[in-house]
UniProtKB/TrEMBL annotation:
CDD domains: cupin_XRE_C (cd02209), HTH_XRE (cd00093)
Name of this protein: Transcriptional regulator
Transmembrane segments: none
Cross-referenced SMART domains: HTH_XRE
Keyword terms of this UniProt record: DNA-binding
Superkingdom assignment: Bacteria
Lineage of origin: Bacteria, Bacillati, Actinomycetota, Actinomycetes, Propionibacteriales
Domain HTH cro/C1-type: 18-72
Amino acid sequence: MARVDGPGPDRAGVGARIRALREARGLSLSALAAEAGIGKGTLSELETGQRNPTLDTLYAVATPLGVPMAALMDDHDGAVIADDGILATRVRVVREPGRTTEVYLLRLAPGAERRSGAHVAGVEEQLVVLSGSGSVEYDDEAVAFGPGDHVRFAADRPHAYRGGVEGFEAVNVIVTPG
C-alpha cells in the first residue's frame, strides 16, 4: 500500500487537551481508556506526549469525552494528522451555539482504509470528492464515488472510507451537535 506522509500533530498539546477534558469530566485514566477501547498505558503515553496520536485513537477518545476530534488536535487551521495511507489537514473549525463544524482536506492512498467507530449522537459527515475514487461504508451500505461526487451520512454509527485504485482527495465536513 502506498503511504501518505505528513507532519504529525503536537503530541504534548494533544495530550494536555485529552487530560484536561478527562479531568473536567471526572474520569479516571482507567475509566476513559476502557470507554475508548484502548489500553491504559496507551492513554497515559498520549496524555504525557510520549505517543503519537493516530486518527483511530483520537476518534476513540473523543467519543466518550463527547467532543469533536478538533477539540483534541492542534487548535489551528493547517493542523495535520497522518496514519498509514491517510492524511487529514484541518482547513477550518467553526464553533457555534449548538454545533461544531469541522472541515478537513482528506487524502487516502490507493487501497488505504480508514475505519471509524460511531461518533457522538447526531454527528453527520459529508464528503465532496476532489480527485480520485473510493468508497464509503455506513449502515451496511457501500457507496462508490469519484471526482465531483458528494456523500452525506449519519456518522454516529460505524463507518469506513476506502481509497480506490488511485486513492482520493476530498473535503470532509463533520458536524457535531452540542
